[in-house]
Amino acid sequence: MALQQQAHGASLTGDRAAVDRLIDTAIVLIHRVDDDLPWGNACRRTPGYLEVQRATCYGRLGLAREAGVLWSQVLDAVPSTARRDRGVYLARQATAAAAGCEPDRALEIVRSAVGIAVETGSVRLARELATLERAMWPWRDAGVGRDLAEILAPVAEGA
What we know:
With 159 residues, this protein is mostly helical. The chain contains nine helices and no strands.
């Protein structure tokens, strides 16, 4: 858990090499996690947990293509029962696309996340969608920005 948190810190300072080194080290050690606390063993309970962390870091680093590939792999492995996780991952994938100056791609991705947000009422997902909205700020006056506002409206109404 500490290694993946360090990877997030490295992504905040723009250090991709450290992100990869830390996540790769955590992958080797994950089998040693033996924690009965619900927050302590998420890395063993959540399919692709460390790749989720890597994809989140890549998105923060502005590596839209790399993050998009990882998010696609992660989303393929998410069980249908994990709707909230799927929504969060979709929102993060959309945010990575926005960070990579792909606002149309972000808009395409976010549609599914909004449906999940409305269906589940997930506060965590709503926060991720707010992060996406901030990432899309440069396009707020463009058609894609107006479309985003329209797509996100049901989430705001449900809040």
